[in-house]
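re: ur question from yesterday

yeah so i grabbed the chain u mentioned. its 297 aa long if i counted rite. heres the sequnce exactly as i have it in my notes:
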Amino acid sequence: MRFIKMTGLGNDYVYVDCFAQTVNNPVRLAQIVSNRNFGIGSDGLILIHPADEGLNAAARMQMFNADGSESEMCGNGIRCVCKMVHDHKLGPMPDQQPMRIQTLAGVLSLAYETDEQGKVTTVSVDMGRPLLEPEDVPVIIDELTQTDQPQTFKVSVPGTTERFDATFVSMGNPHAVIFVDEVSDETADTLRNWGRALEYHPAFPERMNIHFVQVISEVGVRVLHWERGSGPTLACGTGACAVCVAGVVTERTGPVITAHLPGGDLALEWRDHNAKVPGPVIMTGPAKEVFTGEWTG
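ran it thru and got these structure tokens back, copy pasting raw so excuse formatting
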């Protein structure tokens, strides 16, 4: 199986061209190739298929986390899908601009920039409208306690005395945004200690992505991520979008911010956030090809 290793701010995946190849057991393959000691090493596996007929999309993205679970979308991953389709001329519309990619979260539109060699370097993704109603995230509110802060609930770590205030946002997949005074090594330890318990909290029927956030200013935040099915990652695109939304609804930040992630920076804008029907979140960041190879395992 031929593959390409790609990364968006250190959020790395193994990509397979399924226009030309067939993957029979993607769940097991994701678990094997993601292993950083005995596999290729990645946060998961992304397959690039032909899009369904009638969608006017360049390709269909199918994403599997490192544990083999399938996810609706990946913000950093979809930027790399755009780069792979364009740079490697996959399918019938590799030069579509903006490029449309089919995902389990819908068909998303991506505008991209290229370098002097015609290779994609930066991608802006229309990530769609965020969902804030608990049942849409989804979250079982009966399991939680609402706080005085807008859209914020107190979450207890099962079996412990640890409690966190979380704001819930769906960006096509579920996110819990937890604002903290400071993002530090101690915060990272806390996330590693309690991330899995929070991910599998009984209030989260589809599990949860967890993000610890320090507000630097109205236009800047620092973020640490725990991704559902993968654990700590250097970046999470949908998570950064959820952080942007949570900052606005809790009145901590404005609708245009830079999220400083362990793997680098993402530019985010929640358009028309004050409208009766709020607009989409636009995420802009890099996409990079690391290496190509052939998997014989």
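noticed a couple things. The radius of gyration is 18 Å. also The chain has two domains: 2-123+286-294, 134-279.
anyway ttyl
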